[in-house]
Amino acid sequence: PPGFTEEQRSAFRKDGFITIENAISESDIARYVEAIDRAAQKDPKFDPSKFYSPENVVGKDPAFDELVDHPRHIGFVYDLYGELLKLHLSQFMLRPSGGWYNLWHPDGPRAVPYNVFAPGDPVVTKIAYWLTDLPKPRMGNLVLMPGSHRQQYFDGYDTDASLPGEHIVCAPRGSISLVDARVWHRVEPNDTDIVRKNFFYAYCVSWVTAQDRYSNEPEWLKGLTRERRIIMRSYSYGYDRTKPPA
Fold this sequence. Notes:
Blueprint: H1 6-15, E1 17-20, H2 26-42, H3 62-65, H4 74-81, E2 85-95, H5 114-117, E3 124-130, E4 142-144, E5 167-168, E6 175-180, E7 185-187, E8 196-205, H6 218-222, H7 226-232
Antiparallel strand pairs: 1-6, 2-8, 3-6, 3-8, 4-5, 4-7
């Protein structure tokens, strides 16, 4: 599937993220929201008044499984990781009014940051699916600091301070964002009655340990397409992550 245009790749390298509007059809948005609501209602721990974010959601609904290698986004991460592409994380989020929100942070290791190993392209890339209209700030928006993927220290770390130059993602539903996991980011409070709903699917190279699992259910894997089984990389032998089997 198609990935980066030259302009998108340049912007991604410069800022550490891009957002693409009108990437998801209204019918698919409705299907994904319904699947999220179904999965949430099945969980006895779900409280609609609180922030809710289960991980390793693949296998919980066919709508989640199709996103493992959906052509609307898989070409971008294939451009970065090629044949060693791996799903690092799958999760959805529900951010209600007054729910918990993040402080400034990068994703990934702190003591030895990712850019020690990969100073160019990211070792981990997140794909965000925005399923709720976010026309203005303080709706639980993601906030990114452009260019911060090249910094190992950040003055706003562990605060929720608004800083000069930050980019608040105010995207219409149906948009997707690609984010270098090294970019420093935070989340705005949600001061509205609208619950922010979205997916994050993150990808990495095969030898990086997955964030949300050690392995997947064998019976579920049998039901996947060959391409999805490869991208899940649910190996029983550790070295297979470095030298994948045929």
